[in-house]
Design brief:
single chain; about 160 residues; Pnp Oxidase, Chain A; about 20% helix; alpha+beta
Amino acid sequence: MIAPQDFTAALASFATGVTVVTVREGRDDIGSTVTAFSSVSLDPPMVMVGVAGSSYLSEVLHRRDRWAVTVLAASQRALAGRFAAEGRPSARLLLGGHPHHRGARSEALVIEGGLAALECETRLRIPAGDHVLVVAEVLGVDYAAKEEPLVRVHRRYR
């Protein structure tokens, strides 16, 4: 059996991009930092996020099919830390005064200044151990790679 701390330590050496997933929930907006993000298909354009099955974001993604993901720039490290908080993260509170807008297709908040923003519609939810993989079709995309991406490796943002 593999010890959880060994598995975590081994995977910490894999550099990954940092995103924030947001979804509108009634009159509130929920958001969380997600590093388990990947492209899945080009035709149709699809992506996947992996979220902790016990998280509030997972609960909301079971009720709401449309959401957004913002790929963070290196200068947005503080936002990544704020959105990594546990509990019921209110995206508007976590954004504070950071510029954002509501996505036309998803109605989710999109963080301005990110390298890319994708508005998505869930097509498949797959239980995977203590996580849920959410596969979605991309309804709209906006990108402007103005700077380096924010990455996470060895349990630190870089």
